[in-house]
Design a protein that fits this description.
- The protein is an alpha/beta fold.
- A hairpin with a 4-residue loop joins strand 11 and strand 12.
- Strands 5-6-4-7-8-3-9 form a seven-stranded parallel sheet, sandwiched between helices.
- It is globular, with a radius of gyration of 37 Å.
- Helix 7 packs across helix 9, helix 8 crosses helix 11 and helix 13 crosses helix 15.
- Bound molecules: adenosine-5'-triphosphate (ATP).
């Protein structure tokens, strides 16, 4: 009874006294505690405020003043103009506006139809079940079936089997090229069996024969057979569903394995274009001169000078620092290498090539670029050219051909700003952009798809595969006698290579070059010095090669590896003979017939180390891209080679095993 009396209170809103609020319309007020009283006061205040606001608005409306909700000029509006006004909205079929889709937490459940992303997920699951050999309920439509079949077939051909290469898949970074496409290219490549079949200008054909006299040069490589006709405009444009007239330069991508002659694949068509432009300009000038002469003969009073001032005699062909073509490469070593090939061709073809890099002095750069006889082709690194173009924008005003060699490097984070800057500056006059690389990483593929949707992709059949003629050996450093000592394992491996008898090379008809050149690749720059010092202590002629190495020493060392230096072989008796003489490092044993360069990625990009038969991977490379470029320094252009990986504590032995397997099968690394 006491409880009931206590519970009977007057409602603060309706003033009704009731028991326990069972029959009362405001139950919360009837069960008021200290806390609910505060809430009640708060709600009452809110109602009073709202009523006051209504009164306020009504008074403003009556007096004709501005409504509070309507923005006035003094207040900045949060609404911005749509920039897609011009894009027509999709009309509703029956005039009724489409129902707004709501995304609720469980809205994806209990669907009766699979749409959009759901379809993709179902496809993927279906694929996985098919791969696992399970039967599936869903009967795919004929197109889906074909697409799925192709995808599985391609994956199997690319990776060997859908279940293998787990470790490689984990660090997958390369863009996959379907094998269907590769076979089609193979057939096309076989059709071009000599340079004479290519419609290159006579002077270029002559340069191929005379400037590059080796017999082997007479047949184009697959990379050249694919790229040269396309760059000469002989290849049919792929059919598109919506043939819209394209504007801007034509773009090409050449993706071909290492050591496949990509340099000549772009140099020959570029030189051909330079010579044709030169000839066309000469014809134009002659025609103009003939027209002027006729006009003067018809009207003897005609004056060519303006206000008595003679027009300057502008000879476009010898305009200094305005090249017709630019070749971008990632390092000074590559500038020198490509420059040397261009120079040798220029003696026959008569064009002016200017290889410039940060290793050249300012005077040399100025003399080469601003040569009074003009310049046709500039070979340079992007940062240097971008800085020159900053102060001399005219340098890119006449460029019709832009080549980006080692495109994956030049479009990665470090080079991308300067490469794109050059591209943008040169675009107004550009006719052709040519990108080439031995590896096409996913980021490059995505970038090209976004920025060059019409790009013609020229791919060779063996892209991303390491040729079978390169063998891969593995040294387990954890085992006896090395017990985890990688430096010791490296020195011992070099000694074994140095002491081994040279292989008989049927192509050369004799034992292979007695002096052996070995490249040792490390992952970190600091290790180059440490490893080289250790090897020297062990009586090996080794040298560290990195950005800070003395340029003269570097060039000298590289020259003997790239075959540009005349190799002085040791005399008969000296070959493979260990001297008992004590050398400078205090070692009594010295390996005479072996030269070693210890380097990082710097030495793996594009350098044509034709004399290298052995590559030692001191560290397991981080990606398959590095594997391809490092092992690509040996076995170039049909030669045989050998790679040796030192697998030490903490190294990915599983990755090495899978790379070896893929190499054995002759398949592309993924
Ligand atoms: N048609 C050919 N026949 C024989 N040898 C050739 C031919 N074309 C080029 N070569 C030689 O092949 C070697 C490799 O050429 P190049 O440096 O252009 O390869 P690359 O594909 O650019 O390699 P990387 O991807 O490593 O940069 C060079 O020594 C070159 O002289």
């Amino acid at each position: 009874m006491m409880g009931l009396r206590h519970a009977a209170r007057a409602c603060p809103l309706c003033e009704v006294r009731s028991f326990l609020g069972r029959l009362h319309p405001h139950p919360p007020q009837l069960q008021q505690t200290q806390q609910t009283q505060t809430q009640t006061r708060f709600y009452a205040q809110m109602q009073r405020d709202r009523a006051a606001r209504f009164d306020d608005a009504a008074a403003r409306r009556r007096s004709g003043g501005p409504s509070r909700r309507r923005p006035d000029a003094s207040r900045p509006s949060r609404m911005v103009l749509s920039d897609t006004v011009a894009r027509p909205a999709r009309p509703a079929p029956d005039g009724i506006p489409p129902k707004k889709k709501t995304r609720e937490p469980f809205s994806h459940l209990n669907r009766t139809k699979a749409t959009g992303i759901m379809h993709k997920r179902l496809d993927l699951r279906q694929d996985q079940r098919l791969d696992a050999g399970q039967d599936t309920q869903r009967r795919p439509s004929s197109t889906t079936e074909r697409r799925d079949g192709d995808r599985r077939f391609d994956r199997k051909r690319t990776t060997g089997s859908s279940d293998s290469f787990h470790a490689l898949k984990m660090q997958k970074s390369l863009h996959e090229i379907p094998y269907r496409l590769r076979s089609a290219i193979k057939a096309k490549v076989d059709e071009i069996d000599s340079f004479e079949r290519l419609p290159l200008m006579e002077s270029v054909q002559k340069a191929i024969k005379d400037a590059l006299p080796d017999l082997e040069y007479r047949t184009p490589t697959p990379a050249q057979a694919v790229a040269i006709p396309a760059l000469l405009g002989l290849q049919k444009q792929p059919r598109t569903r919506n043939p819209v007239k394209k504007t801007g330069p034509e773009s090409y991508l050449l993706a071909a394995e290492t050591g496949s002659g990509k340099t000549l694949a772009y140099l020959l068509p570029v030189i051909d274009a330079i010579k044709r432009e030169e000839a066309a300009e000469k014809d134009d000038a002659e025609r103009k001169a003939a027209d002027d002469a006729t006009a003067r003969a018809a009207d003897p009073t005609r004056r060519d000078d303006i206000f008595g001032v003679e027009e300057p005699d502008l000879n476009k062909a010898v305009d200094p620092a305005r090249p017709r073509a630019i070749i971008l490469v990632p390092s000074a070593e590559l500038v020198a290498q490509v420059g040397a090939v261009a120079k040798s061709l220029s003696h026959e073809c008569k064009f002016r090539a200017a290889p410039i890099s940060a290793k050249n002095s300012a005077t040399v750069i100025r003399n080469r670029l601003f040569n009074e006889n003009g310049v046709d082709l500039v070979i340079c690194t992007p940062p240097l050219l971008a800085s020159i173009a900053e102060s001399n924008p005219n340098i890119l005003a006449r460029v019709t051909h832009l080549i980006v060699d080692e495109a994956d490097s030049l479009f990665d984070r470090s080079f991308k700003p300067s490469t794109t800057e050059i591209l943008e500056r040169a675009t107004p006059s550009l006719k052709k952009i040519f990108l080439c690389s031995a590896t096409i990483p996913k980021y490059l593929d995505k970038y090209l798809a976004e920025n060059f949707p019409d790009m013609q992709r020229l791919v060779t059949p063996n892209l991303h595969a390491i040729p079978r003629r390169v063998a891969l050996g593995v040294v387990d450093v954890n085992k006896e006698p090395y017990r985890g000592n990688k430096m010791l394992a490296c020195a011992d491996t070099i000694w074994q290579i140095g002491k081994a008898t040279a292989d008989y090379d049927p192509a050369e008809g004799k034992e292979a070059v007695p002096t052996k050149r070995i490249l040792v690749f490390v992952n970190e720059r600091d290790d180059t010095d440490h490893v080289a010092e250790y090897l020297i202590k062990k009586g090996i002629d080794a040298m560290a090669f990195h950005r800070d190495t003395d340029p003269n020493r570097q060039a000298k060392a590289l020259a003997s590896f790239t075959g540009t230096e005349k190799i002085k072989e040791p005399k008969e008796g000296e070959v493979r003979k260990e001297t008992a003489k004590t050398n400078a490092s205090g070692t009594s044993r010295q390996l005479l017939n072996t030269k070693v360069i210890v380097t990082t990625d710097l030495g793996s990009r594009g350098i044509d180390t034709v004399s290298v038969r052995h590559v030692i991977l001191y560290d397991v490379p981080h990606t398959t891209i590095d594997f391809i470029h490092r092992l690509g320094r040996t076995g170039r252009m049909g030669r045989r080679g050998r790679g040796i990986v030192l697998v030490g504590p903490g190294d990915r032995a599983d990755v090495v095993k899978e790379v070896r397997e893929a190499m054995f099968k002759g398949e592309a690394l993924i």
